[in-house]
């Protein structure tokens, strides 16, 4: 264990403040902050000093939506907990919340234990779990109470993927009623999967097999309809609701309406919906398959409404839904049938940088960047102020960020275990320089100095927006 570390001379940015301050770290926690140049700061002493002059000092990112090693469509997401959390660290993310999966016919506990076994001893940064609930029955509902007590306080359900993860409205209502009692938060994949399956079947019958049809059959109206229905079911149950990977302006409008009514409804979007579009899905030579994810990419005009939602707080969080599949041998499973393309994009390494680019481009303020990428996800999922901010007592998850460095995103240089980048060739301003996880350097001046097993499991309290 390193002794005390002092970060001098940087601009400390949190969701609430920007201040030129020195940060003292001791025993893996933030010990003190003091304005740079003041007697209090000058009195700080440490065994190691990091010069952050001209740089930002920001909290480590909290990515509340990742899928390491997820089984999907006869294959597995290509990032393991080891490779995925290492890539997260390279991108300035120091906490992930991944999804443990309940298989139909099995208990929540079996699914959670399986994910603990995948992650334990393998992670470079800290991690927690949500629970995917695929089989709602009386036993499952009882187990939800037990999981909340032990720090798995959020449960994901799917209105999509009939025959795999799908829950009908009755199952959703029962789970929501349970979460209203036990303090859990239901996370919803809101797309009308029953209707989408009809459109998939019809498209394939017409010979429409290319990746672009994936976006055309998963219609924005079916995302909006499911979002509306999820909101109403939550309202009936008296439960809070968190809608994942919102991609369509019509779905944003449903969330905004619910929030205007004072309902405890929250929304998340992802970088792919902010920076990519159906133009990518239409790329020739099956390249479009690289961009197949659900909810799907939308036409470009949806982006402005997503940015607006982030500014007005109708959307509160940007997570990645990181679920990578290699183009060669995995995405290619869907040649000749878009419905067989594994759904998911790589992105855990790119989120903080892409959102900083949004600051450069004028979409967000610096503090809002930290709010949607660090503080709000930590609060939403019961980890604040341990995670998501720089304040005395918080875990010393700290990123030294160079706002002036320029980079070009490429699969040649990224650290995710996948053979393409969704943002290949994109020029970005801003780059992670050094990353501390609980005070331990995992990235040191652009070199990986961490190791598998440093990251520890983080139990969570309930959603901190509901207290």
Please provide a written account of the structure.
The protein is of the alpha/beta class. The chain has 14 helices and 19 strands. Strands 1, 2, 3, 4, 5, 16, 17, 18 and 19 form a nine-stranded mixed beta sheet that branches. Strands 6-9-10-11-12-13-14-15 form an eight-stranded parallel beta sheet. α4 runs parallel beside α5 and α5 (169-182) packs across α8. The longest helix has 18 residues, at 220-237.
Show the helix and strand layout.
Elements: E1 5-13, E2 18-26, E3 29-35, H1 39-42, E4 48-51, E5 56-59, E6 61-66, E7 71-72, E8 75-76, H2 81-90, E9 93-101, H3 108-119, E10 126-132, H4 138-149, E11 154-158, H5 169-182, E12 185-189, H6 193-205, H7 212-217, H8 220-237, E13 241-243, H9 249-260, E14 265-269, H10 271-275, H11 278-281, H12 302-312, E15 317-318, H13 351-360, H14 366-380, E16 398-408, E17 427-437, E18 440-444, E19 447-448
Parallel strand pairs: 1-4, 1-5, 6-9, 9-10, 10-11, 11-12, 12-13, 13-14, 14-15
Antiparallel strand pairs: 1-2, 2-3, 5-16, 7-8, 16-17, 17-18, 18-19
